[in-house]
């Protein structure tokens, strides 16, 4: 599945033609993605001797590969994504979008550690992704706001997302942005918003000394969540969102219905699978 690299951690069994998902179906790989690049001024972070390619998935199914940075700063990866998706290349860039068949070149100067420069296929898309995440949107909802009441926390999240939309509009005015970029950026903002809302109420219920009741309309965002995404690009935070949806919303409902212990541990998960 990967050439020019050695495998550091691989949690899913993969061969050169097909891989199995939970041993139920086989999916043919996509066209290969080739990523090459160079690291300049390596002496600034002399301890960094390798680069790690991470392909996000559900916890326990992530795939990681590493390659040594050559004496000339050169590195190369070749892998086979099934569809358009996010990956990360650490310490080069936290988010890179690749399409099957892409050939992408990345320049990284350790004098300017926050930025990466892309050329080749999807270069404009990834240059915009890098700039937007570095200078315009962090997606960090403050955990300090967990002391707010549910209706106030929800209002805080709505305001944060609206501000992110405004920042996206400002970014688009100053950069040449494609429909693909805009759709990715909106999805990223929305995923972070929904995850923050889902996690907050469970956190309050688990940590509060008094019983916390869900406001009647707190979960009215779920219809938008279910209808707001497609498979245009697989964002890394999809997996976190699904995890939050299960652990913080669906799981407790099922636990209450079947009188299953709602403590967040492996035993509860196993019981759900058996049911």
Count the DSSP helices. 6
Give the strand line-up of the largest sheet: 1-6-5-8-9
Low-confidence region ranges: 1-24, 264-275
Separation of the first and last Cα atoms: 36 Å
Strand percentage: 15-25%
Major sheet: 5 strands, antiparallel
Name the average pLDDT: 84
Helix content: 25-40%
Please tell me what the overall shape is: globular
What is the ordering of alpha helices and beta strands?
EEEEEEEEEEEHHHHHH
Rg over CA atoms, rounded to whole Å, is 21 Å
Counting DSSP E segments of at least 2 residues, the number of strands comes to 11
The assigned structural class equals alpha+beta
Could you describe the 3D structure shown?
With 275 residues, this protein is an alpha+beta fold. Helix content is 37%, strand content 22%. It has helices spanning 123-135, 150-174, 179-207, 222-227, 237-257, 266-274; strands at residues 6-10, 19-21, 25-27, 33-40, 50-55, 63-68, 74-79, 85-90, 93-98, 103-109, 117-120. The chain has a 5-stranded antiparallel beta sheet with strand order 1-6-5-8-9. β8 and β9 form a beta hairpin. α3 (179-207) runs parallel beside α5.
Secondary-structure map:
Layout: E1 6-10, E2 19-21, E3 25-27, E4 33-40, E5 50-55, E6 63-68, E7 74-79, E8 85-90, E9 93-98, E10 103-109, E11 117-120, H1 123-135, H2 150-174, H3 179-207, H4 222-227, H5 237-257, H6 266-274
């Amino acid at each position: 599945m990967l050439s020019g690299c050695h495998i550091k951690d691989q949690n899913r069994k993969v061969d050169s033609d097909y891989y199995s998902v939970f041993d139920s179906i086989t999916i043919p790989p996509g066209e290969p993605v080739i990523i090459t690049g160079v690291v300049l001024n390596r002496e600034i972070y002399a301890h960094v001797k390798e680069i790690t390619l991470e392909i996000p998935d559900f916890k326990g199914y992530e795939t990681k590969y590493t390659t040594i940075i050559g004496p000339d700063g050169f590195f190369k990866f070749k892998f086979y994504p099934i569809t358009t998706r996010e990956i990360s290349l650490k310490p080069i860039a936290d988010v890179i979008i690749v399409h099957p068949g892409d050939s992408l070149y990345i320049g990284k100067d350790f004098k300017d550690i926050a930025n990466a420069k892309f050329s080749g296929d999807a270069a404009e898309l990834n240059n915009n992704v890098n700039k937007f995440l570095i200078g315009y949107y962090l997606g960090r909802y403050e955990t300090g706001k967990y002391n707010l009441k549910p209706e106030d926390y929800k209002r805080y999240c709505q305001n944060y997302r609206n501000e992110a939309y405004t920042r996206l509009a400002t970014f688009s005015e100053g950069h040449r942005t494609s429909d693909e970029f805009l759709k990715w950026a909106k999805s990223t903002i929305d995923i972070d918003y929904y995850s923050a809302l889902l996690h907050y109420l469970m956190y309050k219920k688990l940590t509060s000394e008094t019983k916390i009741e869900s406001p009647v309309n707190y979960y009215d965002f779920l219809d938008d969540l279910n209808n707001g995404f497609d498979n245009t690009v697989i964002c890394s935070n999809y997996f976190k969102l699904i995890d939050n949806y299960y652990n913080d919303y669906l799981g407790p409902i099922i636990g209450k219905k079947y009188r299953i212990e709602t403590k967040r541990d492996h035993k509860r998960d196993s019981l759900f699978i058996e049911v």
